[in-house]
Amino acid sequence: MSRRSAVGPDLQPTLDELSVPGRSSFKVPHAPAGALDGVPAEHLRVRPAALPEVDEPSVVYHFVRLSHLNYSVDSGFYPLGSCTMKYNPKVNEWAARLAGFAELHPLAPDALAQGTLELMWRLQQQLAEIGGFPAVALQPAAGAHGELTGILVIRAWHTSRGDAARDEVIVPDSSHGTNPATASMAGYRTVTVASRPDGSVDLDALRAALGPRTAAVMLTNPSTLGLFERHVVELLEAVHAAGALAYMDGANMNAVLGHFRPGAAGFDVMHFNLHKTFSTPHGGGGPGAGPIAVAEHLVPFLPGPLVVAEPDGSYRLERPAERPASIGRVRAYQGSTGILVRAFAYILAHGGPGLRQVSDDAVLAANYLRQRVGQAYGLPFEGPCKHEFVATAQALKAETGVRTLDIAKRLIDYGYHPPTIYFPLIVEECMLIEPTETESIETLDAFADALIAVAEEARHDPDLLRGAPHDAPVRRLDEATAARQPDLRWQPMSGEQRPCPQ
Amino acid sequence: MVYGPHTPADRERMLAALGIDAVERLFDDIPAAVRAPGLHMPGPRSELEVSRELAALAARNRVDLVSFLGAGVYRHHIPATVDTIISRGEFATAYTPYQPEISQGTLQAIYEFQSLLAELMGLPVVSASHYDGASATAEAALMALRATGRDRVLISRAVHRHAVETARTYFAPGSRELEELPSAADGTTDLAALEAALADAARPVAGVILGQPNAFGLLEPMARAADLAHAAGALFIAVVEPVSLAVLAPPGEYGADIAVGEGQPLGIAPQYGGPYLGLLAASQALLRQVPGRLVGRTTDLEGRRAFVMTLRAREQDIRRDKAASNICTNQALCALAATTYLATLGPHGLGDVAAGGAAAAHRLELALAAIGIERLHTAPYLNEFAVRVPGATGVHARLLERGILAGLPLQRWYPDDADLADALLLCATELTSDEDIERLVEAMGEVLA
Fold first, then answer.
1. Mutation for B interface: A302, A421, A474, most B CBs within 10 A
2. Distance between CA A314 and CA A118 in Å, rounded?
3. Which of A22, A311, B99, B100 is the most buried (most CB within 10 A)?
4. Measured between alpha carbons, how far apart are the two ends of chain A, in Å?
5. Is the pTM of this model over 0.90?
6. Which ipTM value was assigned to this complex?
7. What gap in Å lies between CA A189 and CA A216, rounded to an integer?
8. Which CATH class is domain A91-349?
9. Domains of chain B from N-terminus onward
10. Using CB atoms and an 8 Å cut-off, which of residues 277-316 of chain A contact chain B?
């Protein structure tokens, strides 16, 4: 892979550097003279905003050239653990852009929104079936937003029972960083429990940490180590015996669709990451969607409005105060509906059998790749893994001095996006590798071959790895200066300062 | 397999390599008591069947009405460049740019987004995005608590209802207090009430939040409100609409410490609620309190300019329970839409959008006044205003039957406010034509006759 040759040796100028006074494209009619006569001068801008002036062809060149500097699922293998970078079906993009969905105003009366409302209601039912819960709220905008919503629901439940003494949330030391950050945002103190050497939650440590101050335990299952919690039944019993509720971080649902339903198993709340399990594109960091599902006793506290089916076959949004115990809304309007359309289309295409096949293939691919990667790297935990696995370069580092970071950067030269590195925090020099179900056996083999070859390179030419990547649009970056002297925006230039545009 | 590549032969090869006879063996670690037998949902379905069903659902929505509905989400002409760029798989299917060497496209686009919004907002620090305007407002309120060490935030009741309600949800835990400020007779925030609330020395205020324009479309005395907030040691937070900033004073100039807003008008379709774009900008002094990602400019080993996520010690994956927020996934592709929108329109095009909407709104006001329908408030507005119509909710429903979406009956948001019982909130944008206005006026005349 030679990305540099595709884009030339120079990176792209900024829009501000491309700006030439007077350049523009004609998109909307000019406003009539005096359009702002009704607005008192005290409210108006004194100095026009110094936005770049760029013609349309140059705008398109600019962003297309920028796009060439990106690695993406559409261009190659992206085994980024905990992120489920599977293929994003194109028909879902088409569906979300249908005018009937895209142009609908969020405050349109229910009578105008029957198509989207039906879709949302059916998605609520689908996710309820997948999670094994009676009810789903689609409003949260992302996984972490779902976590916050779920923990606020748990808080409201405790409060409704007059139980105000619970001020702690327990998380395992392998948890996503969002879990403790969510607990803090919801006003709780985080208590961390250590994992056992085999990667599972230490049941004894958990029992010791549980008590009358515990509001909730947040678990990821399968865990961030790619392992199913074998003692999940005992874990849930212990949590409930202490009067606490069990929250499941659903980031890893891609491993267990149709195999494990968290609600049926006894979890009280979970969130889904539609941008992971149900294949809505990640967009360079978002948008996603993070619906939550809850057990019966928590339904009154869900955020609103939910979508309700009427006996006459129509659908509507809940009215204000229809569920007086609701925690309220966690964002404007009903949800990131454009994302919900994509996830609905994905679930519709698969149905129950197809979703189970997704998990079967994701887990099979991960175990196959794990075995191959184990030829050159450490595997700190016993298999089988679920949809992802942890490998470690600890021994290789001891032998060669090469770090996991160097291995990751060298993989870029081989044409791959690196796996997640240095997470989970509890394994030294780790890589978290998630192949997903949409990569062919040839790709899995080629990636394993590359990882094995890089390990060999580490022994013979460690500097090759330390200097990697060599064949990316840029080399390693000076992140220290970026943080020490933050430059977070361009300073608009006057005409004579501008470099000649390309 | 619906989208994956695996054939039965591929699976056999992988199973053989693992020395097992069936994929079920890989799930034997799930205890029998909680092992599910599958899911009760029909499928799989072909792309043909899926696309037919989705098209049928989309067709059941009605998007053909003449619309005067805004109330926080505004219809605008979206240049074709926007969808062309955000549809590119290189942008749409990339993850968060944790590996900057192969993510310069996303990173530079975010830096450009931050720069464009900093210019519009008149504030130097712009986060890479939040979920939407309402959640950004709630995050700004929490920021004020952290920055001042105080517990109490004042928010005008004339801030978008959903932002107030979202902030209220975020404020449920602990000792956080959110207090609503009443409106004055002209529809703007009651500054005397603000002054009185700030004067309570026993309950010092962390932040004061006003909308510009406010939820009734009115222009608030922002500079005076900011002065009052600052005199009491509180931060001033403006909730703004970004297109309006082409013509209205930027928040940084009237003293806002933080500005937030809904970025949807910048090239993002209404989509019945999202995904949208939460905007959050702040002063340099608040840099380390800013929640969410920031992208900064730096150089690579060879001295070439490049961009990277920076000041990461504020974020959840580094700081865990001490992070400024739990936000991880944000709205990067929506920020790219906004960046492309602003680049395509340029300063003059954006000014035409803002001023064109104001001109259409003014024509609407005059046309309604000609049939005796008057504005509810006296304060100035930009492109949205409330009118008094007897039996507003019923009139709204009858206009709907005539193919007209006559804005928002404000009773829906303020059920207990008698002054707003007969109010319709109407908006105009550059899409509002003279024919649209004529149809509304004619239909309104018939319905009220």
1. A474
2. 8
3. B100
4. 26
5. yes
6. 0.98
7. 11
8. alpha beta
9. 66-74+347-448 (3.90.1150.10), 80-340 (3.40.640.10)
10. 279, 281-290, 303
